[in-house]
Amino acid sequence: MTHKFKTNINCGGCIRSVSGFLNEVEGISWNVDTDVPEKILTVETQNVSSEKIIEVVAEAGFDIEKIG
Predict the structure, then answer these.
(1) 3-class SS at 61?
(2) Which of 26, 29, 53, 57 keeps 20 to 30 A from 6, CA to CA?
(3) How large is the average pLDDT for residues 20-36?
(4) CATH number of the domain that 27 lies in?
(5) What is d(CA 26, CA 10) in angstroms, rounded to the nearest whole number?
(6) Do 65 and 57 form a contact (C-beta atoms < 8 A)?
(7) What is the pLDDT of residue 68?
(8) For the chain, what is the domain count?
(9) Of 38, 37, 7, 35, nearest to 21 (Cα)?
(10) Average confidence (pLDDT) over 5-30
(11) Average confidence (pLDDT) over 34-57
């Protein structure tokens, strides 16, 4: 399952900051497209809810909003 989110993760430093939080979540692979204005976070997972991903990214100090 693919989850997409609009975020304010907008640079390499931001990606490094959020990496520690997202890498702690088992069963996901993720990527942030910082080249688009919406800074799209794409998460691939079989068993992690979008709510959990939102919680983790918010805990890291970033804004996040589910798309679609």
Answers:
(1) coil
(2) 26
(3) 97
(4) 3.30.70.100
(5) 24
(6) no
(7) 81
(8) 1
(9) 7
(10) 97
(11) 97
